[in-house]
Design a protein that fits this description.
By secondary structure, the chain is α/β, with parallel strands linked by helices. The protein has one domain (2-251): Rossmann fold (3-Layer(aba) Sandwich). The chain has helices at 9-26, 41-53, 80-87, 109-122, 159-165, 184-188, 203-211, 239-245, 247-251, and strands at 2-6, 31-34, 62-65, 67-69, 99-100, 128-131, 153-156, 178-181, 192-197, 229-234. Helix 1 packs across helix 2. It binds 6-O-phosphono-beta-D-fructofuranose. 6-O-phosphono-beta-D-fructofuranose is lined by residues 35-39, 67, 132-134, 141, 161, 165. The site of 6-O-phosphono-beta-D-fructofuranose has 12 residues, from helix 5.
Length: 257
């Protein structure tokens, strides 16, 4: 794992943005894996800024999002298709046909899940997958206990995840109980992973992701086994890692594990 310490959320977003921009500039048909939640909002804002400056074109980019709520369609302001349109896609020149999200209102969710897997493989797999980190260690919507062999699937959301995400809804009762998520095996097939983590409340989760024994009980621990993970985290999120390993582990980009 390579660890990059950012001063704050803004710097974390800028660093992630420059990595994605560089990749898009250097590849004809880049395939990006995207995440939702609060963490990548700054990254998307920075990508739009770079696009407006003319630094980067998204014409050849294909994207796959990690997850979508079951039951929310693209008009639903709490759905992830809506989020992605608002936060990124409506503001850049990516062709619509190159945007992929699981379909939370499909009549056949299981078929949609296996089609999604095929599409990812057809695109040649994801070059860079952006990930956020759930407080309980979830990646995508893969909750604790999810098999490391899982492919894109329908998940039961943990009560803790529904509570954490209730801030986007008018009440917790409106938070869907199910979602579709890329599986852990699917995520691990990405060629490179960028894990973005910000804020003190994620410090324990980030520490565990990097240090706890690899276990399905804390899904993000699987990232210890991926050959190309870059963690971009701000000082607050890294506070527990820094307490244990000191600045050297970060400054010299040593393997923490
Ligand atoms: O960035 P946030 O809002 O803290 O969420 C962390 C993770 O939780 C999810 O929003 C799912 O609950 C993921 O999509 C995200 O990566």
């Amino acid at each position: 794992m390579q660890i990059i310490k950012a001063k704050n959320y803004e710097e974390m977003s800028e660093i992630a943005c420059s990595m994605l921009v560089e990749h898009v500039q250097q590849n004809e048909s880049p395939v990006l894996g995207l995440a939702t939640g609060s963490t990548p909002e700054g990254l998307y804002h920075s990508l739009i800024t770079e696009y407006r400056k003319g630094t980067v074109s998204f014409q050849g980019v294909t994207t796959f999002n990690l997850d979508e709520y079951v039951g929310l369609d693209e008009e639903d302001a709490n759905g992830y298709q809506f989020y992605m349109n608002e936060k990124l896609f409506n503001h850049i020149n990516i062709p619509k046909r190159q945007i992929n999200l699981p379909n939370g209102v499909s009549a056949d969710l299981d078929k949609d899940c296996s089609d999604y897997e095929w599409k990812i493989q057809e695109a040649g797999n994801i070059d860079i997958q952006v990930l956020g980190l759930g407080l309980n260690g979830h990646i995508g919507f893969n909750e604790p206990g999810t098999s490391f062999l899982s492919r894109t699937h329908v998940v039961d959301l943990d009560e803790s995840t529904r509570e954490a995400n209730a801030r986007f809804f008018s009440s917790i009762d409106e938070v869907p109980t199910h979602a579709i998520s890329m599986g852990i095996a699917s995520i691990m097939e990405s060629k490179k992973i960028l894990l973005l983590v910000s804020g003190k409340e994620k410090a324990e989760a980030l520490y565990q992701a990097m240090n706890s024994p690899v276990s399905e009980e804390f899904p993000a621990t699987i990232l210890q086994l991926h050959p190309e993970v870059t963690v971009i985290a701000d000082e607050l999120a890294l506070s527990k890692v820094l307490e244990s390993y000191g600045e050297d582990a970060i400054a010299h980009e040593l393997q923490v594990k």
